[in-house]
């Protein structure tokens, strides 16, 4: 366990320096990676409380590597999963051993031991001392808490609480291979229980490694949250699609929504992504599923670089955003983002909407989506677009989906077990002349 904690501390330090876990975790030794990831997620879900406690315990902060290890141990001690997984004194002993394993923290092992043992002795009073700190209470940056309050005044506590709970494992059954019910029976025969969700989804009652999913390598299913699965049906629903119909997936990597579009229709799909390496992931995912699309590495906001001049029948724009709706799956996002990111991303989103709207046929449809709960990236963005374009007609859409068990506004409220990730959807049809 000490070696795991050493890597957890290093991973948390990397996040505190501005690096994402997607970048950091591949550097952890393979045998340790699952445990390190689970513990690091737990730490990041309680990092606000851990930082506040560390300030109570130490008049002067130690060097960043030791402080990150202290934050890690404190977060595990106050987290629900940590309390269930380890006895308090065992965790303290192993955290001290972890400090001794690294040259950067060896000299602070005694300091770490003193702080953690004091926390065990004075837990109640120390926790009481940080109760009024909103960052410690909600384990999100204060600006984030304030924005959620402003954007969702009736649900803000539910939203923040949901972000502390890991999301369920949701599958999307490849309907080109078999029906959802048939695959559900296959899962059941393997001792894996699942509940239906949406058109093609199954929510597993217990997550498992993808290698344990029957037929995964052969393309029977994909892992995709229920909120993300809404995109294809919203874009394609209500009409038949043939190979003559052209569909653009403008920000496609890693290819989950592209694949779903192809599973649900016979349309010809062009998938774009700015990063060539992420385009390779689209290729890999489509190949596993037995699907094909044209994939280009290009900036969707610069059509002159990639567009052939033929209008599209439908466009899916899953725009770059803060990822504020998926922090229960990516708990580092809350600590990596800054409030100044929101207006900058909103400008990028508006620029992409303006660039892609002229590429849509009259009578065509666009779905604008973000995995964000912030109105500036969702409802406000769409209302501003509608005010600029009198040929855009908003159709019934989910709007803001709130994460977890928070209520979803409108007719799309499915009260699913574990709830959706946070998302925003709007379907915009282009009026005929």
UniProtKB/TrEMBL annotation:
SAM-dependent MTase RsmB/NOP-type domain mapped to chain residues:
159-431
Write the Enzyme Commission number(s) for this entry: 2.1.1.176
List the active site: 371 (nucleophile)
* Reactions catalysed, as given in the entry: cytidine(967) in 16S rRNA + S-adenosyl-L-methionine = 5-methylcytidine(967) in 16S rRNA + S-adenosyl-L-homocysteine + H(+)
Please indicate if the UniProt record lists DNA-binding as a keyword.
no
Q: Can you name one GO molecular function term for this protein?
A: rRNA methyltransferase activity
CDD domains associated with the record: AdoMet_MTases (cd02440)
Classify the main location. Answer: cytoplasm
- How is this protein annotated for GO cellular component? cytoplasm
Keyword Transferase carried by entry: yes
Q: Which Pfam families does this one have?
A: Methyltr_RsmB-F (PF01189), NusB (PF01029), RsmF-B_ferredox (PF22458)
Q: Which annotated residues bind S-adenosyl-L-methionine? A: 251-257, 273, 299, 318
Q: Name one GO biological process term.
A: regulation of DNA-templated transcription
Where in the cell?
Answer: Cytoplasm
Q: List the keywords (alphabetical).
A: Cytoplasm, Methyltransferase, RNA-binding, rRNA processing, S-adenosyl-L-methionine, Transferase
- Protein role: Specifically methylates the cytosine at position 967 (m5C967) of 16S rRNA.
**Belongs to which family?**
Belongs to the class I-like SAM-binding methyltransferase superfamily. RsmB/NOP family.
The protein here is known as 16S rRNA (cytosine(967)-C(5))-methyltransferase
Please tell me the species this chain comes from: Hydrogenophaga crassostreae
